[in-house]
User: Which sequence fits this backbone?
């Protein structure tokens, strides 16, 4: 009991001191947790405004933590502590105004990630700046704090979820949102606060702080085994595979196109993480790893850069390719620093990564400006080649090759997702908005979006179509309708639905014979009242598969049939057709069936 009591007392004391040590960060975390709470409850507040506030608070929380470490590291900053504690709030307001916009875009997310990474990397470096202390100890303390806080938070949430489930099952019903609120409180608020509570005051000379620091710097035996005797050997084997592949490329002179970049990127990041975690280990494997791997990393990353260059030559620069290349350059620069650094201290490499991250968001060399200009240039060249640009305006044209249609679609979709279209002077500004882009693509370019380079053969094998639900459907003259699933099966005839008209029950069936799908209705005596064949419609859709018209108006997807007993209208809502090599046809989807008694 005494150990449990000591643990509770220690944890409580750490949490209290954390609220005093990081007051601004705590306020920002409370704000973020409240925003997530609001989103879970589904209020009428604009989601974009909430997202912008959340982004600003995330940045400001990281900034406030970094500033607190700076105050603890540099004694001459302590007299400015009040101003430095106010600075994150001013920065949050500035971030909201200048780094976010009316709608949450992919570029906003990338911006936040990069800025937060740069801030965290700088925060990690500050306690050891000017060799004030060992960077490996600082990194180890952060790693242990993160691991413990994530583990405790996961166990805490699972326990709370089990209690909620038990109450809901055994006592009384609980709102399903209780699980989401619990996850929000645990992972959005408790986890980062507990993480901060485990971090020592690295540069403090007070006895309690020194004792806490020494505990944080203690290298767990389990982690030493994981890093030295499991991870390092695995990385070594993987390195040998990459080196052999590198030799193969040099001998064949056939460079890879896309698969090597992300692989080497992940490999390089892993090497640096293990290098940092193992920087204080003195066993033979760890020492050998620190000596050899900077030399191994350089040629492997160089191969990745050549691969990325080939990809960029073919498809231009996107923000992901920009960061792959940037990380490659950083990896080589970091490896060179470690080679010539006598102390082999990776702290400077971490600071270098923060510098590279900051460069990637400063115009005009930032990832977004470079990517936008690259893709804009590609689009302009394709349009000019097809004589679709005149007086800085797009001239719609339909007789383009499949490849050009696909390229135009791919580039324009990418620029729309990233929020770049409004910056393209020749693209119609009124169609650059979210609510008008997709519906007017054909009006802009003269053809429907081409999502792929498939060119249909004489006998098309695959087809997909769906109803444009934004268009109205004509239901005049029909009494009831039902939505049912259609499919091919071993059974030739299947019941797919029931419908009641004038107090009488009717059954909607399908039969599939000789690749012909027929929808028909029967009465209570199993007599067939009306049949609708979908063969002609499906054959027509297969013939027009190359037109890339996946979303179609109701008139195209409608078949009518009437008899003296009943009239029926079938409108396809969604359909997949696969004609196999032996000419059998597989069909699945769903339809609307309208019926009426004449």
Assistant:
């Amino acid at each position: 009991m005494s150990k449990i009591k000591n643990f509770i007392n220690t944890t409580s004391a750490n949490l209290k001191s954390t609220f005093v040590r990081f007051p601004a960060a705590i306020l920002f975390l409370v704000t973020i947790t409240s925003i997530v709470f609001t989103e879970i409850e589904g209020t009428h507040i604009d989601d974009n405004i909430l997202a912008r506030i959340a982004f600003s608070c995330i940045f400001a929380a990281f900034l406030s933590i970094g500033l607190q470490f700076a105050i603890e590291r540099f004694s001459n900053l302590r007299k400015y502590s009040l101003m430095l504690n106010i600075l994150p709030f001013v920065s949050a307001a500035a971030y909201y105004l200048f780094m976010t916009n009316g709608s949450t875009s992919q570029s906003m997310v990338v911006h936040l990630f990069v800025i937060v990474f740069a801030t965290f990397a700088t925060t990690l470096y500050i306690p050891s700046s000017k060799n004030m202390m060992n960077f490996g100890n600082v990194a180890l303390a952060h790693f242990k704090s993160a691991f413990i806080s994530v583990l405790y938070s996961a166990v805490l949430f699972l326990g709370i979820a089990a209690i909620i489930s038990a109450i809901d099952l055994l006592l009384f019903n609980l709102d399903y949102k209780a699980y989401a609120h619990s996850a929000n409180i645990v992972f959005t608020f408790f986890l980062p606060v507990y993480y901060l509570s485990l971090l020592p005051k690295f540069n403090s000379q007070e006895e309690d702080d020194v004792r806490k620091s020494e505990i944080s710097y203690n290298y767990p035996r389990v982690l030493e085994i994981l890093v030295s005797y499991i991870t390092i050997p695995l990385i070594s084997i993987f390195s040998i595979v990459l080196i052999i592949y590198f030799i193969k490329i040099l001998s064949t002179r056939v460079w890879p196109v896309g698969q090597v970049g992300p692989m080497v990127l992940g490999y390089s990041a892993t090497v640096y993480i293990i290098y940092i975690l193992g920087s204080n280990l003195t066993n033979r494997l760890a020492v050998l790893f620190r000596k050899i791997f900077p030399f191994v990393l350089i040629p492997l990353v160089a191969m990745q850069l050549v691969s990325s260059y080939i990809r960029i030559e073919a498809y231009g620069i996107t923000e992901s390719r920009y960061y792959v290349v940037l990380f490659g350059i950083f990896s080589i620069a970091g490896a060179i620093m470690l080679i010539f650094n006598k102390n082999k201290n990776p702290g400077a490499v971490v600071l270098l990564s923060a510098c590279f991250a900051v460069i990637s968001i400063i115009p005009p060399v930032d990832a977004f400006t470079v990517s936008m200009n690259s893709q804009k240039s590609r689009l302009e060249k394709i349009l000019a080649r097809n004589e679709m640009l005149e007086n800085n305006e797009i001239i719609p044209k339909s007789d383009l090759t499949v490849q050009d249609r696909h390229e135009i679609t791919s580039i324009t979709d990418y620029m729309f997702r990233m929020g770049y279209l409004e910056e393209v002077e020749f693209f119609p500004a009124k169609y650059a908005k979210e609510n008008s882009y997709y519906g007017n693509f054909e009006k802009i370019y003269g053809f429907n979006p081409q999502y792929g380079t498939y060119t249909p053969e004489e006998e098309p094998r695959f087809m997909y179509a769906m109803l444009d639900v934004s268009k109205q459907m004509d239901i005049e003259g029909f009494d009831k309708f039902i939505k049912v699933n259609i499919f091919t099966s071993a059974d030739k005839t299947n019941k797919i639905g029931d419908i009641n008209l004038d107090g009488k029950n009717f059954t909607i069936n399908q039969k599939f014979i000789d690749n012909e799908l027929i929808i028909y209705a029967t009465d209570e005596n199993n007599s067939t009242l009306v049949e609708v064949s979908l063969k002609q419609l499906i054959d027509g859709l297969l013939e027009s598969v190359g037109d890339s018209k996946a979303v179609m108006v109701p008139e195209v997807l409608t078949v009518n049939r009437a008899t003296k007993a009943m009239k029926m209208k079938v409108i396809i809502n969604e359909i997949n057709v696969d004609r196999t090599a032996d000419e059998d046809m597989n069909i699945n989807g769903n339809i609307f069936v309208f019926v009426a008694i004449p």
